[in-house]
Amino acid sequence: MGSYNKKSVKDIDVKSKRVLLLCDFNVPMKDGVITDEKRILETLPTINYLIGQGARIILCSHLGRPKNGYEEEFSLAPVAKRLSELLGRPVRMAADVVGEDAQKKARELNDGELLMLENTRFEKGETKNDPELAKKYGEIAEVFVNDAFGIAHRNYASNCGVASYMEAVSGLLLQKEVSILGGALNDPQRPFVAVLGGAKVSEKIKSIKNLLDKADVILIGGAMAYSFLKAEGICVGNSMYEEDWLPTAVELLQKAREKNIKFLLPVDSVIGDSFNENCETRTVRGDIPEGWMGLDIGPETAKIYGEEIKKAATVVWNGPMGVFEWDKFQQGTLDIAKAMAECGGITVVGGGDSAAAINKFGLASKLTHISTGGGASLKFLEGEELPGVACIADA
Ligand code: ADP
Ligand code: MG
User: Fold this and answer.
1) Cα distance between residue 395 and residue 390, in whole Å
2) Is any ligand 1 atom within 6 A of the Cβ of residue 58?
3) How far is the CA of 114 from the centre of ligand 2 (A)?
4) Do the strands 314-318 and 293-297 form a parallel or antiparallel pair, or are they unpaired?
């Protein structure tokens, strides 16, 4: 699907080589226990492939946001332990990232064996893409395999800097992400429907602009719908709209009209009398009364959007339709998710909260792809080249 013009791990010989495999093991943890291991499961295809090829595997990832070097609560040791259980083979743990212990244990690896380095962010140079740090990764390994789409929009030592010190190729998950998202966006089967929602219009302006050049239909929901409705002269009450962005909203609406793109806004909303899980609710068409705020798209909107989605050959969705975290305002997001599940075309979800919503509804298996990278997939929708992908060798 789509064209992928980067070198993949399958294009090179990794037998007996020390392979640095960057993963996204940034899993949620509570008291040292992993509460959702989805991200670990996603890395298994590449890891199993490398084991099968007889590579010497050196895993690395970040976890959370440690500020002062080593901190036990951010150690990757629990991830190494869980991964070892999942693989049914040992995963040795290094005491540091690229220090003496990591270097020593990396040299001791035999074919098919695994070593986990400590949290990449224990090194201060990581987020500054310090070349000294990147060079040390180059001393640990001979080949770099990037499977961390989740940080591909960042320019860090462990995902970009390292590529200057050894051959860099993509892992199977990163390849899947880029080819599905890239294919959907740049070479879509039509009609191509984009669904955009979420909290802030300001965060999504660039992706709307980019999608105006690509999509046939754009469906707007979430809080950002109220900036557009306000720009159209509709009363939005206390809804979360962004005053500063109203002129931009006007421009985008204008551009959609000029380009003859179907750019749909909600015709009804589920509203609340405060931003509170236990607030009073109502469903209204058009204007929202003073003192009330729009917290979900209404049933009529969901029906109209659902029909567009079911007719689509490609759907890309970023941003929930309402405050889906609260049951009273989840229906719109659920209806859209169900329509995506029923759509026979390619259905892709990007965005951390949107993915969480799909998982909450148990519909993930019904869609073509749920991106593992919230920020990275948004950058992708914006049409930006991701630094973590750019530095991978061309095929
Ligand atoms: P994603 O992570 O999928 O890109 P965003 O981070 O942009 O999505 O937005 C998700 C958040 O938007 C959710 O926490 C949701 O509660 C909130 N949201 C959606 N609709 C509304 C609304 N009408 N009013 C306030 N918040 C909303
Ligand atoms: Mg979010």
Assistant:
1) 12
2) no
3) 33
4) unpaired
> By the 8 A CB rule, do 87 and 114 touch?
yes
CA distances from residue 103 to 21, 107, 118 in whole angstroms, order as listed = 15, 6, 12
Q: 318 CB under 6 A from ligand 1?
A: yes
Cα distance between residue 63 and residue 97, in whole Å: 12
Cα separation, 91 vs 63, in Å, equals: 17
The finding on whether 345 has its CB within 6 A of some atom of ligand 1 is no
What's the pLDDT tens digit per position in 98-118?
999 999 999 999 999 999 999
Reported confidence tier of residue 149, pLDDT bands at 50, 70, 90: very high
Residue owning tokens 């150690």: 75
Q: Is 373 assigned a catalytic role? A: no
Q: In what order do the strands lie in the sheet with 167-170?
A: 91-93, 114-116, 56-60, 18-22, 143-146, 167-170
Q: Is the CB of 322 under 6 A from ligand 1?
A: yes
Q: Which of 81, 200, 303, 360 is catalytic?
A: 200
Q: In a 3-state reduction of DSSP, which class is residue 245? A: helix
Rounded distance between C-alpha atoms, residue 6 and residue 3, angstroms: 9
Residues composing the chain: 395
Atom of ligand 1 nearest to the CA of 200: 7
Task: Note the pTM of the prediction, 2 decimals.
Answer: 0.91
User: Tokens representing 92?
Assistant: 């040795």
Who contacts 328 (Cβ-Cβ below 8 Å, separation ≥6)? Answer: 270, 272, 277, 279, 281, 295, 296
φ, ψ at 217 (rounded to 5°): -135, 135
For the chain, the distance separating the N- and C-terminal CA atoms, rounded to the nearest angstrom, is 16
Q: What CA–CA distances, in Å, run from 269 to 93, 206, 393? A: 52, 25, 48
Quick check: is 92 catalytic?
no
The pLDDT tens digits for 345-378 are: 999 999 889 999 999 999 999 999 999 888 999 9
